[in-house]
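forwarding from the other thread:

> can someone predict this with zinc ion?

sure thing
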Amino acid sequence: MRALVYDNYCVNDDYASVLQIKDIPEPAPKPNEVVFRVRAAALNYDDIWGMRGVPLKVPLPHISGSDAAGDVIAIGDDVTGIKIGDRIVSHGNMSCRLCKNCTSGREFDCKKRKVWGFETGPLWGGYCEVTHLPEVNAVKIPDGVSYEEAAACSMTLMTAWHMLVGRAQIKPGQLVLVMGGGSGMGIFGIQIAKMYGCTVIATASGDKLEKCLQLGADYAVDHRKEDWHKQVFAISKEFAKTKDGIPGIDVIFEHIGGLHWNKELTLLKYGATLVTTGATTGYDVITDLRHIFFKGTNILGSTLATKSELEDALYWVSKGKIRPVIDSVYTIDNAAEAHTKMLRGNLFGKIIMKP
Ligand SMILES: [Zn+2]
């Protein structure tokens, strides 16, 4: 079968210098595994970290791809819940299922956790014609959801779902601030918060504001402007007039970090919540602690999600309440171009790659 493989890490993000199409044997299922023909896979930033070999030396030779969807073509002897012909998508959080974290519903905190297609290998990921997963990491794709949509959802949708539903426990009527609403995470953050009956302010760069509104955000603010937080607070004041008169934000969906962090803290109401899963513009932030202890602020960390959260979120995709956004579709033959596009960040939605 054809697979997108690299044998060495790249320098200066020259992906074309390391990516090759190779012919390798199709995998056979281990007793607990399903083997599936990949129909669509979605790019994630961990593909780039993998090729760089930084911050982690991934196993070589390597096949990337953590979000893959396709048709099951073989199953191991111990597989009971999935049959040949089922449409599945990967739940890329591969945990031991035995440790205390796993058995208390925190599989994302498993010390043995590996992200499939990033930390796994050699030659074990989604950018190939046929791949394999433990049954427990395969989620059935609901009817009405395409392979491309399922792949575009998996990692990003479940991460956003766990932040807002699992951790922040959003409620109808709350005012939610989605930072980076034009990003892969933000696209789902906006839609999840709207589905839960919240009012949503999204921040984005100027060229993505209109798209945030089309996804359902009630307001969109350009976070590249120095005083973006003042605009958000003014919106919250207006919103409060129609509710309880208390300005400020109930829940902030944060994955940016950097210079925005302390401004975000000033926007929270007393007893409000900030949930964070990333730091794309910097992790070494300044925090005015008065915003935390005076106001009884909840700062919640979040990473990935449980398999059942992915299943819950996909149900709402099948009902049309959450819509994955696909920026573009490539084949593995043009993978270097696809990854360069992701690196440059000039995209709205997920990049899909097909074998
Ligand atoms: Zn575990």
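Residues 95-96, 98-99, 101-102, 110, 112 surround zinc ion (CB under 6 Å). thats all i got for now
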